[in-house]
Amino acid sequence: MLNFLNIIKQSYAALLIGALGGLIALFIKLPLPWLLGPLLLNLLISFTKVKITFSTKLLSPIFLIIGIILGGTLNISLLYKIHLWIFSSISMIVYVLISTIIVSLYFFKVCKFEKLNSILAALPGAFVPISAALLELKNNNNQRVLIPQATRVIFIVCMLPIIFVYQVGYIEIKGFGNENIFDTKYFIEISSLCIICYLFSLIIKKLNIPSPTLLAAMLISGIFYTFEIIDARFPDIFINVAFVFLGTALGSRLNGLKIKELLFYIFHGIIISSILIVIAGLSSLFLEKVFGFDFLPTFLSFVPGGIHEMVIISVAYNIDPIFVSYHHFLRIILIVLLIPFIIKKFYKN
After folding, report:
1. Which run of H or of E encompasses 160?
2. What are the pLDDT digits (tens) for 56-103?
3. For 32, which DSSP code?
4. What is the pLDDT of residue 339?
């Protein structure tokens, strides 16, 4: 108990700054406000003389919640449709590999990043798993990965509505519309899922796989929701709180960053975001011309923005949200599985 109080005492200032950052980001309608708001405000505070710290010991339950929420984007209709998406699934694997190679070469040759940071910064999406892996590494230039990746999320999520308005017309973008009945059944289901995910994470941890809690929660919850073993899902407030913790943890890791470096990373983050959008567009065009997929739904599924924002856009524009969430989920899982091999190959402590 005393140890927990010490952790809170160490981290409360950063969390308060993070919560304020989330509110500001929500007010100015920044994408992923409760994640990027805390990250950016803690980053700005780091340019002052105020010293902020955050204990990463608080993050294990946060990754559990985030993983379960990501798995909750799937449902049973996936079982009846996935056989129709074989070619798009293969294309997604190719897209992840090709875009990672092209963008990592850009970071390595143009920006002069180390090989590890070049590859992690180039991964097309999965900002949360990449962040989780970074928090486990020591003596690494996190800002070279975090800022280009955060720039990618902001740039793509801001650009996509503009593209859709131009192509289809304006439609008000709201939320998922998921509703929970908070009865005994709900609390039994959500508690059981958390316990099972945690136990599975202990097994994955023994295999020395990075981010075991996040990966276990994504896999187990994805299976449970797809087969409708449970229906209970976390309300939005949980993902908001979880993102405040994660954004605060990431922002507090960027202490010592200079403004010149920040602008440098943002500039190149915009360039690689544009590259990823072009590759996603070419992949979608290929699937449209060769296999008859509709371009806009496929483009929305391939472009590496935040999974929640992409699914919300799909709902607003009457695009199958399972088609979109499945391909983003597949991309995230691919990246999560690649990260241990990347770190093992290129990381030097």
Report:
1. helix 143-167
2. 777 788 889 988 988 888 888 888 899 999 999 999 999 999 999 999
3. S
4. 87
What DSSP line would sit under 162-218, residue for residue?
HHHHHHT--------------SHHHHHHHHHHHHHHHHHHHHHHHTT-SSHHHHHHH
Pairwise CA distance, residues 341 & 312, whole Å: 32
**pTM to 2 decimals?**
0.83
For residue 185, what are the contacts with CB-CB under 8 A and spacing of at least 6?
A: 232
Burial letters 261-281, b for 16+ CB under 10 A, else e: ebebbbebbebbbebbbebbb
What the block records as the tokens of 82 is: 């996935």
Convert the pLDDT of each residue in 169-188 to its tens digit.
Answer: 654 444 455 667 788 899 99
Distance CA 285, CA 275 (A): 15
Quote the CA–CA distance of 331 and 325 in Å, as a whole number.
10
Q: What does each C-alpha distance from 310 to 145, 194, 198, 208, 329 come to in angstroms?
A: 22, 26, 28, 32, 11
Q: Would residue 181 be called left, alpha or beta, if left means φ above 0 and alpha means ψ between -120 and 50 degrees?
A: beta
Q: For residue 30, what is the DSSP state? A: -
**Whole-number mean pLDDT of the chain?**
85
Which residues lie closer than 8 Å to 244 by C-beta, 6 or more apart? 15, 18, 19, 22, 34, 35, 38
Ranges 39-53, 95-109, 176-190, most confident: 95-109
Burial (Cβ within 10 Å: 0-12, 13-18, ≥19) of residue 80: exposed
C-alpha closest to that of 131 among 207, 210, 202: 210
Distance CA 269, CA 228 (A): 39
Contacts with 332 (C-beta within 8 Å, 6 or more apart), sequence order:
70, 125, 126, 129, 218, 307
Residues found in the chain: 349
C-alpha span between 33 and 29 (Å, rounded): 7
Between the alpha carbon of residue 280 and those of residues 239, 285, 307, the distances in Å are 27, 9, 15
Answer whether residue 273 shows pLDDT above 90.
yes
